[in-house]
Design brief:
Blueprint (H helix, E strand, L loop, with lengths): L6 H33 L14 H7 L1 H8 L3 H5 L3 H8 L15 H8 L1 H4 L5 H4 L3 E7 L3 H11 L5 E6 L5 H13 L4 E3 L13 H13 L7 E3 L7 H11 L8 E2 L35 E2 L5 E3 H9 L4 H7 L10 H8 L26
Parallel strand pairs: 1-2, 1-4, 2-3
Antiparallel strand pairs: 4-7, 5-6
Membrane topology: Single-pass type II membrane protein
Main location: membrane
Keywords: Glycoprotein, Glycosyltransferase, Membrane, Transferase, Transmembrane, Transmembrane helix
């Protein structure tokens, strides 16, 4: 039928047809999404629990406590846009008070630590998880984060930024003393910068301490999880030893290319006979700092490799050097436990779309 039209008109009609198809699917998907959300409506109460927590009220101050307590969590979690837009204009800014109580009783009662994690399954107990985090400020937020992810069989390490103020460091150490069996502070302190300098060293200081622990933890994470501990366990078990590290081409000027990046030039392996025969030069890749390492990968990094000369050279660049270390090791070294490969780095997985000449 389209043959009766000129090529120009055919292209125009095809374009109109595609637009109508797009609109149809958009409306269909929007309706489906609405019905899906409707079926999953949360059953939280219309307002937050107004029971007074004197410990938390004292920590936040009456003004912030009342602002938080007046939030309608049900509307937020059910994505009520008008309500969300009305409250995001005036964000609630939480700050640490100078007279914050850091005795163990106050810490535990502020966030109801032992009420949050509930009953722990045998599956979780057999699969401990470690957390390593470099910290600088916002103590109360970190205390709250720990209450969300805390489980007695997991282990937690804080690496202090040397630039952090004295009071913040005292509070983190008080938190560690309160949960002395599985929360601790790294022995080393580094001046950590947003450019990435000393981020890897600070993280490694926690990994070294974690690796000496008797707990048989399986994976180490540093980001705030959006899953329950039980869900994390099932996810990490599905990984089956694989690391969760992105692999991307590096951004320009992230690495000083003129330096010697050969494995032997970097003295990367502690054992001279351990160098992989087919890998002479590192092909740098990057990820975010949002990584998850297997215990085997951590042990390999600390015992088989000497990564500090590598870090020294990475830190000769201006920015983003902290995003290169683990991604490069994970994607370049064939013997890196749970590692990936460079094979797919420049290969399109999805079909390319060509619009020209339609």
């Amino acid at each position: 039928m389209l043959r009766m039209f000129t090529p120009k008109k055919r292209n125009f009609l095809v374009s109109i047809l595609l637009i109508f198809i797009f609109i149809y699917f958009y409306l269909y998907c929007s309706n489906f999404n609405f019905r899906w959300k409707k079926n999953l409506r949360l059953t939280t109460p219309s307002t937050t629990n107004t029971k007074t927590n004197n410990y938390l009220q004292s920590a936040l101050g009456p003004k912030i406590f009342n602002q938080i307590n007046s939030l309608n969590c049900s509307l937020i979690l059910n994505e009520n846009k008008s309500y969300i837009n009305s409250i995001k204009i005036k964000r609630i800014v939480q700050r640490d008070l100078n007279d914050l109580k850091i005795d163990c009783n106050s810490i535990k009662n502020r966030w109801k630590f032992f009420q949050n994690f509930g009953e722990i399954s045998d599956e979780e107990k057999r699969f401990p998880i470690a957390f390593a985090r470099t910290v600088y400020r916002d103590y109360l937020m970190l205390e709250q984060m720990l209450s969300v992810e805390y489980a007695p069989h997991n282990v937690y390490c804080y690496s202090l930024d040397r630039k952090a103020d004295k009071k913040f460091k005292e509070r983190i150490r008080a938190l560690s003393r309160c949960f002395s069996k599985n929360v601790f502070v790294s022995d080393e302190e580094y001046n950590v910068y947003s450019s990435g300098k000393n981020v890897s060293r600070s993280h490694l200081s926690c990994l070294e301490k974690l690796n000496k622990r008797k707990e048989d933890w399986k994976y180490v994470n540093h980001d705030l999880p959006l899953r329950t501990n039980a869900e994390l366990v099932r996810i990490f078990k599905a990984y089956n030893g694989t690391n969760d590290i992105a692999t991307k081409n590096i951004v320009k000027n992230t690495v000083v290319k003129s330096l010697d990046w050969s494995l032997k030039g970097l003295r990367l392996y502690r054992n001279e006979n351990a160098y992989p025969p087919n890998i002479k030069q590192l092909n740098h890749t990057k990820s975010l700092n949002l990584i998850v390492l297997s215990r085997a990968a951590v042990n390999f990094t600390l015992k088989q490799l000497n990564v500090y000369p590598f870090i020294d050279q990475l830190e000769k660049s201006r920015y983003g050097m902290d995003e290169v270390l683990y991604s490069t090791l994970n994607s370049n070294l064939p013997d890196f436990p749970g590692g990936f490969t460079l094979d797919c780095l420049n290969i399109r997985i999805k079909l390319p779309t060509v619009w020209e000449g339609m």
